[in-house]
C-alpha cells in the first residue's frame, strides 16, 4: 500500500494543567487509503501516547469518533485522508465541553435523549399472549430512516442554534422522538409533545439544515423537526379553534 | 478536580465559520427586503388614502433611481427567499402514497407551479396582459 506523509494539527487540552486549549502539530506516514482515525491511532502508538480521543468500531456504526475535521463535524473513521490536502486540523466536536484533548462530555445530549422518551410507549397494555404487534411495510417505511441514527452528535456540533442556545433539545433527540411518534405501534406522542413542542424544542430550530448535511447515517433530522413544527401548529389550531379542543 | 473546557460560540460572527451558515444567513437577510417592500406597499396605500396629489407624489418617488435600485434588489431577494423555501417544502411536507414517498422535487415543483399560476392571475388582474 502506498504511504503518504500526513500532517495533523490536533487540539490539545489537559484539564489538570491547562486553562486554554492549544494546537499540536504531528507528522505521520499513513496508507493513502486510510482515514483520519488511522492517523490518530498511529500518532498514539508511535509518537505521543498521551493523546486522548474516543473510538470503537472503525466502521461508522458506533458513533464514538466524532470530531471537527477542518471545521466540519465528521466521524474520524469516515474521513478519508485522500480527500484532504495540506495540514488536517482536528478539534473536538463543537458545542460540547472538552474533557481532555479530543474527548468531549456527551452528558447534555444523553439527558435530552432520555427526556424525549425514545422508546415504544404502547397505546394500551397488551399481554404477551395476545401476540406480536403487526406492521405493514408502508408503516415501517414511514419512520425507518430515523431508526438509522447512531447518536454520534455530529448534528449537534453542526447546529448553530444548539451552540448559541444550549437548552435547545436539538436535532437527533427530536428526530428520534419523531421516529416513535410516526410508529404505528406507539401511543406516546402526547408525552413527547410536552418536551419537543415546547420553546426549548422545535421552536428553537430556525431550519439552518446543517444537521442533515453532516449526518453520516443519512438521517434527515431537519425534515423531522419541520414536520414536528407543522404537526404542533395543527395541534394548536385544533385546540383553540375547534369545539372541544379537537379531541 | 479537573474542569471541562467550555468554548463559547461567538454570537455575532459564528456564520463566517462555514459557507453553509453564510447561505443560511443570506436566506434570513432576504426577509428584510421582503419586509421593507411590505412597508413600501403600506406607505403607498396611505398616500392613496390621503388623496390624488399625495398618490402622484408617491408614484413619482417610485421612479427615482434609488427606488429602481431598491426594487431590483428587493426582487432578487424575494426570488431567492421564495426559491429557498420552495426547495425546503419537500423536507417539511413529505407525502407517502402507499409504501413509497413522493419524490421531493415533485413537492417543490408543485409549489413553483402554484407560484407561477398565482403570479399570472395577479398580473392578469392588474392588466399586464
Characterization of this structure:
- The complex is a heterodimer of chains A (247) and B (129).
- Chain A folds into 2 domains: 3-104, Ubiquitin-like (UB roll), CATH 3.10.20.30; 107-246, Fumarate Reductase Iron-sulfur Protein, Chain B, domain 2 (Orthogonal Bundle).
- Helices cover 33% and strands 15% of the residues of chain A.
- Chain A contains 9 helices and 7 strands, in the order E-E-H-E-E-E-E-E-H-H-H-H-H-H-H-H.
- In chain A, a hairpin with a 2-residue loop joins strand 3 (66-69) and strand 4.
- The model of chain A has no long low-confidence stretch (mean pLDDT 96).
- With 129 residues, chain B is mainly alpha-helical.
- Chain B has a domain at 8-74: Up-down Bundle (3 helical TM bundles of succinate and fumarate reductases), CATH 1.20.1300.
- Helix content of chain B is 71%, strand content 3%.
- Chain B is flat and about 75 Å long.
- The mean pLDDT of chain B is 95.
- The chains are: A alpha+beta (247), B mainly alpha (129).
- Chains A and B meet through strand 6, helix 3, helix 5, helix 8 and helix 9 of A and helix 1, helix 3 and strand 2 of B.
Cα-atom radius of gyration of chain B: 22 Å
How many strands in all of chain B?
Answer: 2
Query: What name goes with the CATH superfamily of the largest domain in chain A?
Result: Alpha-helical ferredoxin
Overall tally of structural domains of chain A: 2
Structural class category of chain B? mainly alpha
Order of helices and strands of chain B: HHHEEH
Order of helices and strands of chain A: EEHEEEEEHHHHHHHH
Top-tier CATH class of the largest domain in chain A: Mainly Alpha
Oligomer: heterodimer
CATH superfamily of the domain at 8-74 in chain B: Fumarate reductase/succinate dehydrogenase, transmembrane subunit
Structural class assignment of chain A? alpha+beta
